[in-house]
Amino acid sequence: MTEQTKLSVLCSLFTWTQRSKSAAKKRAKFRKFLDAFCTDHNFFPAVRLLLPNLDRERGSYGLKESVLATSLIDALGISRDSPDALRLLNWRKGGAATGPTAGNFALVASEVLQRRQGTASGGLTIRELNELLDRLASAENRAEKILVLSTLIQKTNAQEMKWIIMIILKDLKLGISEKSIFHEFHPDAEDLFNVTCDLKLVCEKLRDRNQRHKRQDIEVGKAVRPQLAKRVANATEAWKKGDPLAPLLFNIVVEGLTGLMRTAISKNMFSSYQVGSQKEDVNILQYADDTLFFGAVTTDNVRVLKSILRCFEMVSGLKINYAKSHCGCIGKSEGWCRDAAQFLNYSQLDIPFSYLGIPVGTSSKSWSVWQPIIRKFEAKLAKWKQRCLSMGGRITLINSGLTALPIYLLSFFRIPKKVVHKIVSIQRNFLWGGGIEANKIPWVNWDTVCLPKNKGGLGIKDLIKFNEALLGKWGWELVNNQNQLWARILLSKYGGWNALLFGRNSGDLSHWWKDLETVFQQQDSNSINNNLRWKVGNGVKIRFWKDKWRDDDLTLQDKYPTLYQMSTQQNSPINLMGHFVEDRWDWKINWRRNFFDHQIDMVAAFMAEIDDVHIHRSSMDILTWRDDPSGSYSTKSVYNLLKDAGNIVTEDSASKIIWNLKIPPRAIAFSWRLFQNRLPTKANLRRRMSAMSCSLAPKLGVYGYLSPYLISVRSLNLIPSIHRVTTDHLLQPKLWSRIMHVSVSFMGRMWLLSANLMVTAFKFIKMELKYISSQGKCHHNVTQYGFLFVFPWVFHLPWNFIDHSEYAHAMSEIIIQNVLVDRCILDGEMLVWDTSLKPKAARDGLDSDRQWLDVAFDILYFGDTSLIHQTLKERHEILCKIVRPVKGRLEILVPNAGINSHISSGEPCWSFIAHNVDEVERFFKETIENRDEGIVLKDHSSKWEPSDRSGKWLKLKPEYIQAGSDLDVLIIGGYYGSGRRGGEVAQFLVGLAERPSPNTHPKQFISFCRVGTGLSDDELDAVVTKLKPYFRKYEYPKKRPPSFYQVTNHSKERPDVWVDSPEKSIILSITSDIRTIESEVFSAPYSLRFPRIDRVRYDKAWYECLDVQSFIELVHSSNGTTQRDTEYGSKQDSKPKRSKSSTRGEKKNLSIVPSHLIQTDVSSIKGGSLIFSNMMFCILKNLVSYYLIKLSDEVFEEMSNAREVLLAKANSPFNYMKAGS
């Protein structure tokens, strides 16, 4: 019934709805339409036309107004120079040619079509319209689109064609929101659409409009509308809207409890636990919501700790959860420990125990430490048993899932060899057997499997080398963070960095430190220690003889052994090997004796080598990693280095070609085994002395078994079968020919395959990768399609849930490898990261210094569980656990972790927990100075709601505030508007003056920016009416701009009309975001972000506008902003110069203090009399702002000795008297 409904009925509904002024009547009309014409409960064909902007079943038409205009001209068969064609092309412009419909393309097109179409309806149904629109969306070229438009024109009248055009443009302009339409369709429709973004699914699931639908949660693979942030005008408003409880708790727990402990220690009431030879004090550590106390094992300490905790409860009002608290003792009897725990109301902590997954008090070599990892492996594989996975799927699963499981332990302990053998056995068994319980033949040696892909391997990680690369990170962090507590503890207990490189593996050391020493004291050329280099700063950390700080690979001890033996400073750092003479470093090396004559040349060469080294007093020594361009230690580069140690395998050109082919993983795996000659052919099975049977040798094709010597050929069916497969999207002919070409080139044999072989070997499910360039959701999944194929897939779904498959290659591998779970939904942003400058790059293209960067700031789904009902804090904790950040490619944005954890000293943080409004204000200022977009404030206890803008998230941007940057500019051109402003100038091109000679008026004006918002309709009409007689149409490229305007003629700058003379123009006072941008569109060197009109300056003459030189001085003197005061920028010594003609009117200043707390500025008011001296006045703030300030000024004129004038709210607790006149 729905699909047979005539289009004329739907168009009548649209026309009536557009003309109606009552929202209730509009909703009732939609409800009646659905009741009357959708009796078969097939709502989607009609609803997709009612909400064309939400329909994603149909692709993009690729037709905006300009392209649609030319397509309609060709569909109608009229000349491009005809009046009707010009009306379509110039639909925005008003005047006699376009008429009153200017600015509304559908109305202009309807008037043109009215002369060529009949008035009677063509009888087109909703079904036929949807079919034609599907053809229009799927058309591959312009000719096909024109053919569909011609068909539509033939089967409709002008009124129907008008609405079809509006459907194509996806803007019906009905005056009713999608929320109202959803509500009339079904009360649960909007909620379901918010979590699926699938209009067809909504219509199918809610076929019964009288039955309520259980609220659906989000799920992997379905787009979801984002949670939205509410605008706020300033930091004070944002802080008032936030929940003050979370920062209060944070302050109490972190500062209050730490302060109590600090006080107890300062008064010698509590004895800290002292570590190592340097007696480093440790007393309190906090991680997340855990607090750990350390102290000497004494009765006094137990009593003081009890008192501290009791004081904390009394002061804060919070109660400690004693049921989850534990007390453990080392060096005391079990009875003493039990009594101490009972006194504290704690449970007794048994040693050994585990904290954050790390075993404490037990040997890392113990099988019990690693047994949970083995169980996780086996549980992971148990899910895939009895499932038919291709080898390509098994490779992907091993790389993305299995290797990532033990990473937290691999980064802390050296993995025992027996554990390595067990894990490798599991991986190898799974790779070659897919989890089927039977004897598996390992066709390729595991060492070969672990080789990089370009060297003939599968790129599966070697656990031992990977383990060493992870452990090496500890040494790197140790030397670069020597002032942190954990580094000071290691220095005191073990000797720090020097002991790590040269210490002896004595028996009293912990297993963990012994493992680190083993990793760093390896002597081969590819060891970690041999690839570290020092960059000389002040020379405090670098040992002169024994560290590598020269350009070569040798230490001075190895290069000059004789001189090393003669030196009395063999272990001294560089800073003790000389001194500064004024600003020049002078070496002072002490020798045991004088040199012989034959040693003079050696000493001269030695001194010449070190004389070119520059020592800097103020800079620190930096340890760099040689094998990474950035100089930073990365696990990947270290792993590759260790993997290459002793490896003589060179790059395999065949493998390199295979892995670069754009083919499915199962096809790559098949080709890899083919080139390794490890397919289960008769010859290979015979060579392995396996019994030859049909059950072991896979039957390929319909004639025989796969063999390098004999394959049955059905050449006549080969090409037709390939094309038959191609139509099913299983295999492309070019792909197969490329594989076969590689086979012939590198195997030296001619292979002929039957068509059935290709279908058996290469049937696969296509992987889709969808990306955006703004905010989006990342859906990651490892799932099964039918019984044939398993593969990880990643969707990037933007906030408007549009498919962007063109970014498919950019980030898939990064996300799959570093998201440590099978299924999840991440909320975040996709950016372009400039690796050379480290800011976010605002450009569309990529070059060698720019790369895609995914920043995840929330997680909505994890495993099989939705997380949107958990708090933001809980979601952040889960996010940190399942996403492994990759610097510059995949980052997580959470407070005190993720991208914040590796920012350089002095760089602003990306996210933090604010405790007061001052911190919010300070952070906002930093974002402005860093030229960022703004800040978002989130309630840490908030839950995630799709399409919610209730204020749980708040956004503060510079363009939302009044920044005081009102600039006087001259209107030099105009742009026609659309919609209700169609046919009239709705925006202005404004310019700045070239600074004139003294006592003269400006003669040249430079295009500056485009502005249209800020004025009411009446104010805008008044300006346009005043300038309309002086507007001249700009017919580009036939005519040039007026000679007194300096422009770029950029397409975005080019106006529709010019003001024919600056003397006839009007000055506007405009304001904007305080940050300026370097302009490529306009002639001025700088332009404004989000400009808006503050007021029209009829009181100023045309020549009193701001000159461009003054504006440039303003920008340079205020750090790239237009801020005249020092509210958001650094203080300036002097104000920027301005021409006398550019005097300003009253200036609006932004204040971060609420207005009722601001004292009146009376610095310019002269005192009159003393009748109010020594009195305090409270002026109630219930008056208009202007009169309030004026009243304050009048009071001050009569009081020269007054203490202050307060501005208070009307309900302030002041006694006052109202005096009558």
From TrEMBL:
Domain of life: Eukaryota
Gene3D superfamilies attached to this UniProt entry: DNA ligase, ATP-dependent, N-terminal domain, DNA ligase/mRNA capping enzyme, Nucleic acid-binding proteins
Ranges of compositional bias, category Basic and acidic residues: 1124-1136
Coiled-coil annotated residue ranges, if any: none
One term of GO molecular function: DNA ligase (ATP) activity
Keywords: ATP-binding, Ligase, Nucleotide-binding, Nucleus
Gene Ontology BP annotations: DNA recombination; double-strand break repair via nonhomologous end joining; nucleotide-excision repair, DNA gap filling
Family annotation (SUPFAM superfamilies): ATP-dependent DNA ligase DNA-binding domain (SSF117018), DNA ligase/mRNA capping enzyme, catalytic domain (SSF56091), Nucleic acid-binding proteins (SSF50249)
Spans through the membrane: none
Organism: Glycine soja
GO CC aspect terms: DNA ligase IV complex
Annotated ATP-dependent DNA ligase family profile domain residues: 856-994
The family this protein is said to belong to: Belongs to the ATP-dependent DNA ligase family.
InterPro entries reported in the protein's UniProt record: DNA_ligase_ATP-dep_C (IPR012309), DNA_ligase_ATP-dep_cent (IPR012310), DNA_ligase_ATP-dep_CS (IPR016059), DNA_ligase_ATP-dep_N (IPR012308), DNA_ligase_N_sf (IPR036599), LIG4 (IPR029710), NA-bd_OB-fold (IPR012340), RT_dom (IPR000477)
Protein name: DNA ligase 4 isoform D
Chain spans, region Disordered: 1121-1147
Secretion signal, residue range per the UniProt entry: none
